[in-house]
Write a structure and sequence with these properties.
alpha+beta; Rhopdopsin 7-helix transmembrane proteins; 4 strands; globular
């Protein structure tokens, strides 16, 4: 049995199985698009209202919205042409587009974790300047991924397949391993720092519980990414070492493995960026602290500031202003999400302090 212009498998019974698989895949992709687009639009309206640049969470949502469009189109081409990757040129465009936005999602999850880790947890001082360095690093990775995908598209009509295959496999495996390692290194380090400060949370209702939820999300996402990277890298190396004919039904098995890896990863990311995941299906904001319209924050008025014996508590929220702190501080977050933080810096000797409102923006 093999793939033919008239059959996906060469066998009518197996054709039904493959069609069921692809209908399921298309349904999941369509559902992801339907629930993520409203969240992206609500976030865009929010940042436009506040006249601020989008944060890492919005870019992650953007990737979650773009990825299904390319992957959905890719599957339609397969069902029409019965050819993977190198049939219609549009198949290649859609395949590379979906791969690029998969990296895009990874990169901005990494961006947020690195900003949180290297701004608030890497030392006893709050280092706000590290947030911009994390943004520059993230956009550098995006530029590298975009250059690879665009160059491949440009070369594909003119360069021999064997050369393209080596180029694609080497660059793809490198990017997958780099993204996976960045998540697997920064994720566990961030988890350990959050656990260290979990018992020290003060001044926030259910603060310890919120951090516990965040720790579980980071752990789950790290495990899922590790599994996905291993599956995808092994799959690509196997297909490179032992190429499969274009009409082989093994192509469907390979597609199924990619489907599992992508679906698990997308689901884990969607859970990780949401305070209230069920709100995806209610078409309400998945950020519990976010308010539209008249956005305000009214902390208790505290005066005075000191650089000695300072203690901080990070609270999730979206604020209008931002200020800097030059003092030494040991951050103790009472909630963490891909959004904004308010840092209350207190002098332990007097109990006085100030509110530092800061958004991890560009």
């Amino acid at each position: 049995m093999s793939i033919t212009p008239d059959s996906l498998t060469g066998n009518p019974s197996w054709d039904v199985v493959v069609w069921v698989f692809y209908v399921l895949r298309l349904t999941i992709l369509a559902t992801q698009e339907i629930v993520c687009v409203p969240q992206m639009i609500m976030d865009a309206q929010y940042f436009r209202q506040k006249k601020k640049a989008p944060n890492a969470r919005w870019y992650t949502l953007f990737g979650l919205c773009c990825f299904p469009l390319f992957r959905f189109s890719y599957i339609i081409f397969i069902l029409v042409d019965h050819r993977y990757d190198y049939g219609h040129y549009g198949v290649l465009v859609c395949s590379l587009g979906s791969t690029f936005f998969q990296f895009f999602i990874y990169i901005f999850v990494i961006c947020f974790w690195m900003m949180l880790l290297y701004t608030y947890f890497i030392s006893e001082k709050i280092r706000l300047e590290n947030a911009k360095r994390c943004w520059r690093f993230s956009w550098g990775l995006i530029a590298f991924a975009a250059a690879f995908h665009i160059s491949y598209l440009i070369m594909s009509p003119f360069v021999k397949f064997k050369i393209l295959d080596v180029y694609y496999t080497a660059a793809f495996v490198f990017m997958m391993l780099l993204g996976g390692l960045l998540i697997l290194i920064n994720g566990p380090i961030l988890m350990s720092r959050l656990k260290k400060h979990q018992s020290e949370v003060q001044g926030a209702q259910n603060g310890g519980d919120k951090i516990e939820v965040m720790i579980k999300k980071i752990k789950y996402l790290s495990y899922v990414v590790a599994l996905s990277v291993v599956v995808i890298v092994i799959r690509n190396l196997v297909l490179y070492i032992k190429p499969v004919p274009d009409d082989s039904n093994i192509k469907h098995v390979s597609s199924f493995l990619i489907f599992l890896a992508e679906t698990l990863t997308e689901g884990a990311v969607m859970l990780a960026i949401a305070d209230r995941p069920l709100n995806y299906f209610r078409f309400k904001s998945i950020i519990s602290s976010r308010k539209f319209g008249d956005v305000s924050f009214q902390p208790s008025q505290i005066s005075g500031n000191s650089s000695k014996g300072m203690q901080t508590a990070l609270d999730l929220g979206d604020f209008d202003d931002s200020s800097n702190n030059s003092g030494s501080a040991s951050p103790q977050p009472n909630s963490v999400s891909m959004d904004t933080f308010s840092v209350e810096v207190k002098d332990e000797s007097t109990g006085s302090g100030v509110i530092i409102e800061h958004e991890l923006e560009q």
